[in-house]
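Dear support,

We are seeing what looks like truncated structure output for some complexes. This example has two components. We would appreciate it if you could run it in full and send us the complete token output so we can diff it against ours.
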Amino acid sequence: MHDDMPKLDRRRFLAGAASGLTLSFALDLGGMGPAAEAAVATTAVNIWLTVGTDNSITLTVGASDMGQGSFQGLGQVLAEDLMVDPARVRLVQGAPTLAVPAPIGTAIVTAGSGVTRGNFWKLRDAAAIARETLVMAAMGRVGDGARSSFAVDDGVVTHLPSGQRLTYGALAADAARLTPPASAPLVPDGQFKSIGKPMGRQDIPPKVDGSAKYGLDVRLPGMVFAAVRHCPTVGGTLAATPAAPAGALAVVPLVVQAGHGRGAVVAGSTNAFAVVAPTTWDAMQGARRVSPQWQLPANAAAMNSAQFLADGQALATSATPYVAGGSNGPGTVYTVEASTSDARAALALPGTTVVDATYTLPYLPHACMEVLNCTVDYVPGVKCDVYAPTQVARSAMALVVQMTGLPADKVSIKTTLLGGGLGRKAELDFIAQAVQVGMRMARPVMLVWSREEDFTQDQYRPMAVVKASAGLDTNGLITAWTYRNVSPSILGQRGSTLGPRGDSQGYEASNELPYAMGPRLVEWVSHPAAIPVGFWRSVGASINTFAVESFVDELARAARQDPYQFRRSRLTDPRWLAVLDAAATMANWYSKPASGSARGIAVGRAFNTVVAAVVEVSGTSATSFTVRRVWIAVDAYLTVNPLNVEAQIVGGVVHGINAALYGQQTFSNGAAQRKNFNTNPMIRIGRMPQVSVKIMPPPAVLDRSVPIGGIGELGVPTLAPALANAVAALSGTRVRALPFFPGATGGG
Amino acid sequence: MPTYSLNVNGQSRSVTVSSSGMPLLWVLRDVLNLTGTKYGCGITACGACTVMIDGEPKKTCDMDVSSAVGKRIVTIEGLSPDRSHPAQVAWIQHQVPQCGFCQSGVLMKVACAMKAGHHGSEIASEVDNLCVCGTYQRMKQAVATL
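Here is the complete output from our reference environment:
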């Protein structure tokens, strides 16, 4: 048993429940940086466990399900210490409230690969306390106060001296009247029946018969549909509300809400309209038929991809230093990490071979399978029900309360399944639009973005220009390292004042690298481009891991050393070494690849998880190759459901392949150019490489002071560099600009 | 407002729509409330809207409702009454879906291939649907059993 059993804060039982024992408690549901964290109270109670007199066990989860499988993971964690079969735990979507602490299962933020890792120990503690409360009820029932007289197995408390068996259901009403213990012992390590076991997900069966309900599947009596059309030019506005086209019920101008302007999209401006009609099709047709007059921003012509790249390249060599207390506008260079000795001076030392490289990454759309949508049922003065595929239900609730002026108890946010989230559904723009249309129509209305709107009005992964330089001595040791990432600021566009290190979302995974590399200088520069940017699966790690691990590979080649051994002999962190070794071993790194094939390797860290990937490609050049195999090793400290971890990592690999090969959004005159999957291809089943995942084993004894790593985003960051390194090994051509195939069209 | 009679999942359904050119996808979703068939792209690029029409896979996002008259339409809701179609069984067994949004279209494509007498990797070679979650590896494992 664990000695350390901290008290569970803010837990409470709701007494007198005839239906049984209810325990509500606080879990962390992630955070997305200062802006998001400031908006929510991290101590809010947001989970609700119910043990019913009918023997039911229900876990109401405040997180969102976007396919990442964390509902199932939380169920397995709960089942372990409640000592029940996880298949018996009903997993129910929670709703948010604004109360602090909120009284019942409330949704906060689902992001940062944070649901399982953030809640593992808290949920275990809560489950153990609930279990012991039920045992206390059994003690009272049997009249034996000795804990050692009782055993628990799969929701049944057995009084050992008498053999009397009492189910949790039979004890639930009694337990609800007891004061629970402040702490309770956990199931010992090594005796797990649920944690770490591969299990099927409860959400999957409804996803094979069409019964799973996503945001787009909400249907309400009398409901109508609204199709959105934005000004195609970022920062443009609607000059006049167009007349309703034939067959439409209304045209509603849409105003950017305060706090939701991004880049050149200004809060308070009218940058879009919605056409309302009886069906989605009629609404979309109506929106297409209208000929709106747009007011374009004066700088529209300057907003194009070539200019953004040129600006980034200029700032990679010359930017204005950060000044504490200064205005620090776009173009400011922030110092993320600097050794006490001067890295630039070390580069200039005689006998040093200096290697320079510049990497460029494009704006990247999210392109979730399910386009943005939100349904609002507003009755003036009475209620506003919002059905949304959202990663931020609690922030959505605050927004709807503010927009409608209704008291919070008249507003409900019903989180639907998400047909992919990927960070895009952590934004509120589409919800704010739906509320405007709902308030205008005063009847149920679903607001839908067409695929073209979804691609062209995204809040993209930032473009980036990364300039790296390093020195090598005659033995191939790295003697100095300078690294500068120029990219638009995600947090800056959300109104954050950046500190001396700049935007954490931009520089993450570029600093504190566990390589022996002499003095280092890591910088981040805010790029001035006004295209809206946002959180894209693994955020800064997907940018910086590409640049860092491509560059390390270039150093290995400059030093004429094997890229795996080059990393191995310079890594200073045993976790990184172990994961790197595991990936190389799986790939049989030292075996000679088949003729016309080559391998590349990369390692990195995000959300406390360390990942290494080996990619094998075959082909003839950097423009003609196939991704054949991927071996990927993952150390997240511990694993709840290995079957789901494997799924997430393999899916992340595919996402990484799509981004590296094809992913981009380009701009001309301030307008996004790629509008659908035909000009932003992704691989299909025929191009799927064989992917092997190795999950590093957990320690024999779990230490709750060690941060648990995330999983959902971790397949992505190492894929692009391992692929680029494999292509360099295959062809001798180093690809430093993503995507590999900028002109690709069609099915991918 | 034209009215059509459609044969959907073995039932005759009368639908009244704004125009004969309304795609079958939106008739299924917004008129008949059969929301298992999904909108993904609207340009037949992704396959999320795939249903079975007279045994053949059809992308319904650009198929006029008028052209579906007199044909047998099977949607994901009609594939089986109880998730017992072998493809559905295999999908659960192999834990294929993640977000799940594309899987209706994938399963209808697989079901059509099976109906044509195809098996295993032959089926996989016909499935050209887009899955942003990247569940292709498990799709391949699942169809290998079919």
